[in-house]
Amino acid sequence: MENLTMTGEEVRRFCSTNQRMVNFVHISVGDYSAARCCYLNGLMQQGAILGEQAVEKILKGFLLRLNRDEKVGVKFRN
């Protein structure tokens, strides 16, 4: 089995070279926490919206990891 640990320096280097991705993931954690709080307090619609946004941001973060030079967003066609 492959060793999946990183030193503190490796983590800092990864975060500095993938800053946009890290920002999306960090924001998605806050959205997910807020969604759970809403669900636990009976605010189902607000929780669903925040949950959807958390998933969207984490997916954008992973897309940025795959290709850092790409602009991540949705393009609408007329």
Could you explain how this protein is built, in words?
The protein is mainly alpha-helical. The chain has three helices and no strands. The N and C termini lie far apart (50 Å).
Q: Give the topology string: H per helix, E per strand.
A: HHH
**Structural class of the secondary structure composition?**
mainly alpha
Strands, total number: 0
Portion of residues in beta strands equals under 5%
Q: If you average the pLDDT, what whole number results?
A: 86
* Shape, per Cα inertia axes: elongated
Helix content: over 70%
Tell me the major beta sheet. none
Radius of gyration, rounded? 16 Å
Unreliable spans are none
Q: What is the helix tally?
A: 3
Termini distance?
50 Å
Please outline the helices and strands:
Layout: H1 8-17, H2 19-40, H3 44-66
Characterize this entry briefly.
This protein is mostly helical and 78 residues long. It has three helices and no strands. α2 packs antiparallel against α3 (44-66).
